[in-house]
Specification:
There is one protein chain. By secondary structure, this protein is α+β, with helices and mostly antiparallel strands. The chain has a single domain (10-141), classed as Electron Transport, Fmn-binding Protein, Chain A (Pnp Oxidase, Chain A, Roll). The chain has helices spanning 10-21, 76-82, 106-119, 122-129, and strands spanning 29-30, 33-41, 48-54, 57-58, 61-65, 86-91, 94-102, 136-141. Strands 1, 2, 3, 4, 5, 6, 7 and 8 form an 8-stranded antiparallel sheet that branches. β4 (57-58) and β5 form a beta hairpin. It binds coenzyme F420. The site of coenzyme F420 (F42) has 26 residues, from α1, β3 and α2.
Length: 145
Amino acid sequence: MTEYIPSTTEWVRDQVELYEKSNGQEGYELRGLPVIIVTHRGRRTGAIRKTPLMRVKHHNTYVLVASMGGAPKNPVWYYNLIESEKVELRDRDHVFMAKIRLVNNAEERAQVWAAAVEAYPPYEDYQDRTTRCIPIFIAEPILDE
Ligand code: F42
C-alpha cells in the first residue's frame, strides 16, 4: 500500500502539511527550534506515515528521539522504525533517504543523548517524566539515493 495516512493528532498533521506545502519555508520550527520530517511505513498497514521530530544533528547523522513528551509508552512510529531499514528524511527543502538503527550501546547513547538535549533541552524533562529509557535511532544519510 502506498497511501499516505496523516497523523491522528491535528497540530502534528497541520505542521507536516505546512512544512511540505511550503518546501520547508514554513512550519520548520517548534518552540523556535528546527524540526525534520521522517517519512516511513506503518508496520501493519504498510501505509506512508509522516512524523515530525526535533532536528538533532550529530556529526553527519540525524538523531531521532522517541520522547513523545515523556509519555509512559513509546510512540507508535518507534515500532514502525524498529522494523525498517531506511526512512526518508526532510530537513527543510532537503529530502533524502537515510539508513536507520536503534542505539543500544550505553556509551554511544550517552553521547547522542547529550547532543539531543543540547539541540532541544526539554528532552531532559521528558526523560525525567517517564520510567522508560527514551529510545533513540541514528539516521545516516545514504549519499547515492
Ligand atoms: N515526538 C517525539 O517523540 N519526538 C520529537 O522529537 C518530536 C518532535 C516534534 C516536533 C514537531 C511536531 O509537530 C511533533 C513532534 N513530535 C515529536 C510528535 C511526533 O510527531 C508524534 O506525533 C508523536 O511522537 C506520536 O507518534 P505516534 O506514532 O504515536 O503518532 C500517533 C498520534 C499517530 O498518529 N498514530 C497513528 C495512529 O493512527 O494512531 C499512527 C499509526 C501507525 O503508525 N500504525 C501502524 C501502521 O501499520 O500503519 C501500526 C503500528 C502498530 O504497531 O500497530
